[in-house]
Structure formats: structure tokens, C-alpha cells
Amino acid sequence: MEDLSAMRHHLMCPISLQPMQDPVTAPTGITYDRRAIERWLAAGHATCPVTGQPLALADLTPNHTLRRLIQSWCGPRPSTPPEAGGANKPADGDDDAVEHSRTDDDVVKKLLRAATSPPVDVLREAAAAASESDAARRRMVDAGVLQRVLRGVAAIASEVKTDDPRHHENESRSSSAIARAIEARLDLARALAVSSCDDDELRPQLVSDSLVHGLLDAATDVLAALERAGGGGGDDGDAARASAVRLLDSVTGAAGAAVLERLRPGLFRAVTAVVRDRVSPAATRSALRVLLHACPLGRNRALAVEAGAAREAIELELDAPPPPPGGGGGRRATELALALLAELCACADGRAAVAAHPAGVAVVARRLLRVSAAADACAVRVLAAVGGRAASPEVLREMARVGAVGKLCCVLQADCDAAVKDAARAVLRLHHGVWSGSPCVSAYLLSRYL
Fold it and tell me: How is residue 165 annotated by DSSP?
């Protein structure tokens, strides 16, 4: 049965990470080695190590089928004839692989021994191992580490939400420690979930609705709790919020419509707050991407507008210096902000939010033809949406006054995509009669390309 060697990890006990000798199955469906699970229960635990559901010794059932399979796999194998000059000598890389495997096993055992609160250094060590090694990642997922991490995040976020003074004898130190613990857990969750998405063996465990929503809920709760706590630990609180929004970015980017259409309203408020608070440039870009991933669905567009996403995207561009033409993080943030505004303007509330902001039209016009082709396409979409058939006379006058009409005329002269020029030409033709008489618009420029 040579093919059994390829499924070795399926025969391992999630607690000991060794081949099971006497497998027993819990009512939760998880199988353990009897000796390991009995030690776990004897230590005072009353829950399944993987799922966290209640478990007693009497609930365990022998798994005779798996036991026979393990015995077949562990049985004698035909020996291979020794090669000349090196009988039974392992290859040079084998020793490194064995040592690496032992190190990975040690990391997982540390996590499992720590019960509900693994130390931050152990969590970071596990995240590094999961990021670097497919085998380590597989062991941790099989052992239920991801579920335990999410439960830990939920528990800490709940503690922060309660803001019970009994939990904070030294408030600043406690807040900082809590923030570091949250950041380490979220980094490990992201290393396990995101890095494993391309692993065929792990995919079924990582794309289940319950686990994906667990990831989303954990990150959302952390963002909401730390925002409510006023940042929760200064720089450490900001780092934890950045880690949470990175996790949301990764999960929403890989999620399908069935998951995205069930996002909680609190997620949009918490992510928009990251943009508002300028947690960090990288966190801001991640937050904008989360909103972009969600906004193609009409329900989510409405929730994002209600959370103030349009206003914060405009404020972000107002505060930002002109992005360098060569690219970089500032240019990317501008592209993301304009793309978000273009998505939000696909609904009436989004268009109203952009038009209602005192600088909404002006900041979009200012970025047009100054950033990139992608930014130009989004800026024209925003101006065409805000200045569409339902545009009020006040909005049309504002577009002429702040130079948006002139910029749309320049688009027709510039080296832009044909679709972008067509969109600009359409809105100029639509309101040609209004703008041709405006002192803020060149009548010659307006009529030349129409």
C-alpha cells in the first residue's frame, strides 16, 4: 500500500502529531490517539482541542477502521537493496528535512500545550513557520490551530469591548499587551488561511462558510474593539488594527459572492475607520481594497456609503500630496481611492455623497490626468456619474467652477483610452448647453471636440 505514504498526515493525532496507535473519534468528528486525548482530559480540559465543543471521556468511540489502516501503513515494507558505497545512508537533504519537521512539530506542540493563551513569541514563531513551510502549515491546520486562534481573538476582542476596569490594573501596559496578543494571533491566522489557499489538501478546510465567516468576524471584532478603545495601546494598537485589516483584505479578495453578500454592517464601519484614522499607509491601502472587494454588490455599496466610505476617500485625497509620477504607495492609494469612489457612484446614495462633499468634485478633477491611466478611467467615471442626467443645476455649476469641465475637455485631447474619451464626451454633450454659457468654461474648447 505505497499510496498510504502520501496521506501520512491524515493518520496523525492532532495533539501529539504522531501516527495514532489506538484512534478514537469524538462526537465532533475529530479523531485522536486515545493516549493523547486521555492525557488532555485528565489535565482538566473538558472540550475538544480542535473544535472547542464540550467533550468527556465517555464520549470517545474506538475507530477500528482507521486502526486497521494505520496498522497496514506501519507494517513491514519490502526492503530496498543497498546501493554500492552507501547502504541505507540518507541523502544529505534528508537530515535537514527531518530536523525541520521536528522543529515544526515542536512549534505546534507549544501552541497546543498553551491551551487558550499561547505566549506572543510562540504565536509569532508559529506564524513564521506557517509562512515558510507547507508541511508546518498542514500540521497546524490538521491540529485545529486556526479554529483555536480565532476563538482566542474573539475572546480578547470581547474583553476589550467590555472595558472592565478590573481587567486593567495598569491600563497602558495592559492595552499594549492586549494589542500585541491580537496582532500575533491575526498574523498567524493570516499565515494559515491565506498561505494555504493554493494547497489542494487544505482547501476544503479553509473555504467552508463557517471558517471564512469566523475569519471575517474575528478581524471585524478586533477593529471595532480597538477603535472603541481609542486605538488600544498606541503604536501596538495601530499594528493590531493593521494586521486585522490585512486579514480582511486577503479573505475578501479570495471570497466569492456568497460570502461577500453576507458581510456585516459593522465591517464597513470598522474598515472605514481605518481609513479615517490613517493607521498606516499600508493599512489604508488594505482598507480601501476591502471596500473595493465588497462594493460590486449593491447591498454592500449602500453599507459602505452609510459607513462614510465616500467621505473618507475624498478626505484621504485632500490630505495627500500629489502622487509622484513614477508610482509608489501614494500613487497606489490614489488609484484605490478613485476606484472606490467610482464603485460607490454606481448607486444614487454614493453619487449624492460625492456631490454633497464640499471638495468632492474638485478633488476628483484635480487628480484627473495627473496620476495614471487607471486613475483617469476612475475619475472620469465619477464625474460622469455625478454629472449625469439627474445632476442638479448646483452640481453642474460646481463642476464648471472647480475645473472639472475643463479637465474633461482635456481628456479628449490627451492620450487616453477610447472608452474613457467616450465617457467624457458623453457627459460634455449632455450638458453642453449649460456649460457653454459659463464664464468658467472655454466655449471654444468645449465645442472643438464635440
Answer: G
**b/e map 39-77, b = 16+ CB within 10 Å:** ebbeeeeebbbbbeeebeeeebeebeebbebbeebeeee
Asked which of 207-216, 261-270, 304-313, 389-398 is least confident by mean pLDDT, the reply is 207-216
Q: Which residues contact 331 (CB under 8 A, 6 or more apart)?
A: 323, 324, 325, 371, 372, 375
Residue 349 in contact with residue 302, Cβ under 8 Å? Answer: yes
Cβ atoms within 10 A of the Cβ of 442, count? 15
**Strand stretches in 34-175, DSSP E:** 61-62
Neighbours of 22 (CB within 10 A): 16
Q: Say how far apart CA 35 and CA 60 lie, in whole Å.
A: 12
The per-residue pLDDT for range 294-315, each reduced to its tens digit, is 999 999 999 999 999 999 999 9
DSSP SS3 for 341: helix
Instruction: Determine contact, residues 220/248, Cβ cutoff 8 Å.
Output: yes
Q: What is the pLDDT of residue 19?
A: 79
Torsion sign across C-alpha atoms 82, 84, 87, 90: negative
CATH, range 1-75: 3.30.40.10
The DSSP code for 22 is S
Domain ranges of the chain: 1-75, 113-307, 349-450
pLDDT tier at 428, thresholds 50, 70, 90: very high
Q: How many CA atoms lie within 13 A of 8 on its CB side?
A: 9
Calpha distance 426→403 (Å, rounded): 17
Burial (Cβ within 10 Å: 0-12, 13-18, ≥19) of residue 138: buried
Residues 6+ apart with CB under 8 A from 76: none
Helix H or strand E segment including 314? helix 309-319
